[in-house]
Write a structure and sequence with these properties.
The protein is an alpha/beta fold and 292 residues long. 35% of the residues lie in helices and 24% in strands. The protein has helices spanning 43-50, 85-93, 102-113, 175-178, 180-189, 197-205, 209-233, 249-262, 281-291, and strands at 5-11, 15-22, 25-33, 57-62, 65-66, 72-75, 80-83, 97-101, 122-127, 131-137, 140-142, 237-241, 271-274. The protein has a 5-stranded mixed β-sheet. The chain has a 5-stranded mixed β-sheet with strand order 11-10-9-12-13, sandwiched between helices. Strands 5-6-7 form a 3-stranded antiparallel β-sheet, with no helix packed on it. A hairpin with a 3-residue loop joins strand 9 and strand 10. Helix 6 crosses helix 7 (209-233). It starts with a strand and ends with a helix. The protein binds zinc ion.
Length: 292
Amino acid sequence: MENKRYYGIDIGGTTVKVGLFEGEKLLDKWSVPTVTADGGRQIIPDIAASLRGPAAGAALAVPGAVLPDGTVNRCVNLGWGVCRPTDEFTALTGIPCKVLNDANAAALGEQRLGGGKGFESVLFVALGTGVGAGVVLDGRLRVGARGTAGELGHLCWDPADTTAQCTCGHIGCLEQYCSATGIVRLASQAGVTGMICKQVMDAAAAGDKRLEAVVDKACDILGWGIASACAIVDPEAVVLGGGVALAGEYLRLKVQDAFEKYAFHACLGTEIHLATLGSDAGMIGTALYAMD
Ligand SMILES: [Zn+2]
């Protein structure tokens, strides 16, 4: 009988999430610690040793840039430079393997089975430590010529804001205002220190005016970024995921308001939804990518 099983493998900085799927059905899932010592060279062998039987295919999601030919162009959190982890994976397991960026994987998962279900064209925005994104157009994940399609985290909001030094080397990137790290940074600029992002969001939602102004600023900039991306990509829907989006409707409504303030008039029908797959989105999307 033909093997219809696929592995979806989401490699994070501390944990690797592995799912074994048959079609869209999750049969089993488990995790493997990510050993980043020694340039992360144990990561793929550790994953291979954890697998539960043969499969028709697999895909890896990684926290870094992936070129269309499958070359990974640095994953700082894993200790990887330029490498081809799929070649090593297939050599160890005999299973054909693809690789994609983790936010792109989550985008595909949310479009097919999560907050973007029912839409063929979705812009997914992951609001975590940084701001990741992915673009699905006409049902297909689009990664672009260099694997960076949809990277709205590095749209430049304010090139003169020298307090907003981005990890990419530029100043004033959207990520420096709208990520969990960015929101905490804005809170400390407003005189509130020692809070994690969730505490800032909760206090703002509970009526703290100073922190609500912080959240409003972050949502305003995010709405601008989404409106800018929509003018180019024109998705049917935008899906907000990542830890910051756990603030739910409180966040979504503010982003929707800001989006409508900045959007090109013809884009105003774009729906903004919340992600529904949580931290499994990447693993699920990775498996779907393996099946494509
Ligand atoms: Zn940047």
